[in-house]
Fold each of these.
Amino acid sequence: MDFRLREICGSDHQGGQEGAGEDDSDLPPEYCHYRDEGCELAGSCLNCPFPRCLYEEPRGKQRWMKELRNKEIVRLFSREGRGVKELAALFGLSRRTIQRALKNTLSTSLRRRNGS
């Protein structure tokens, strides 16, 4: 049995295909034992809250984390009245990055409200 096949399907693989060679690594899913271990964002892939896996998108996790950070920056700025300098120190970012995050996130939310 091929090492890759053993790694994917485990050592207890019982091939049910007649005529298939030992090195056939393209097995039907019912012959593979898939362990759904998820990632640091979800406990398992089948219980993931995202419609598409973040790891399939270019810079998906990085983009998602940045959006969360920017939403928190906007929340602290608009609801708690924190200043740009204070937010920069709190998040360990430059003042210009905080200003950019505020501008981009606020303009995006305004566009969504207006339906554009």
Amino acid sequence: MDEIAERLQRMRQVVNGSESLARRGRHVRATVLIDAGDSQHLLGIHAGRIERLEHGPFVMPTWDFALRAARAEWEAFWQPLPAPGHHDLFAMIRRRALRVEGDLHPFMANLLWFKDVMAAPRGARPASGA
């Protein structure tokens, strides 16, 4: 399992273990593609919990929206204290390092929840890196 997959697994543990995130995301239902260039991952989100995490490669996956950035951008975003421009999803969009594609309604309607979810694995070292 690569580092991105391990970070996403950590994200799933943190999000599903947080009653606060579950309560805030109780209306979120979406399938999200996280694209890190050479690896793709699908998050199945229902009622504020990540119920499904699948690792690609995929052939024509079905998703509501996709977050696409280079592997190096995701790694910089998930640093314990990210550098300016890497600290926020919209900062990455502004630098054109992150693209959001698809149905933006679930993303924008629950923006703060998605920002907190995507930042959840910050500082958590992957198991292989320990």
